[in-house]
Amino acid sequence: MNEVLGLADPNTLARVVGVICFAVGAWLGSWFPDIDRIAVLRLRHRSTVTHGCAAPALTFVAARATGSEWAGWVAAGFAAGVGLHLAFDLFPGKWRGFALVDVPRLGRCTKAVSVVWLFANVFMCTGLAVWTVPAPNIVSFTACLAVVGALYLYGVLKKREHFAAGPLLTLLSLGADAL
Q1: pTM listed for this prediction
Q2: Are 36 and 43 in contact, with CB atoms under 8 Å apart?
Q3: What is the DSSP string of 44-90?
Q4: Where are the beta strands (DSSP E) in the chain?
Q5: pLDDT tens for residues 14-45?
């Protein structure tokens, strides 16, 4: 059975496990920014602490410190998931209240600053995800794109987005630039 699936080759099996790790990281990353809703953290929603590239960058540093290729896949997925979440946040129904980025101790930003903050961090998360995938090849890269695509579709269906093309076009343009 392994020969039929092409899993006899250890590199193939390693890439399959890597893509699974990427998927787990992407799923966690897509939920992570909303951790600021936990009252214990004392952060307001859309905090710069959680709605930025700091956590994905720290995840990448931690993965490098472990030296584990699997941790690298998780870190790349985490960055992709956070980038996807922030891409959706770029297109709220209206730019007021919780749609605006919050800087702890300073308060909510303006619409313009919020857009620049989110866009810049989508760009950094997307670049981090693209450039940190361990041992990339066309198959694993395509599989990772499929994972992000599935999360995107889930986001569209879950949120019933009124402008679902916005996050997709943002990610596609930034992902192409990162390549």
Answers
A1: 0.84
A2: yes
A3: -TTBTTTSSSHHHHHHHHHHHHHT-HHHHHHHHHHHHHHHHHHHHHT
A4: 102-103, 107-108
A5: 888 888 999 999 999 999 999 988 876 788 88
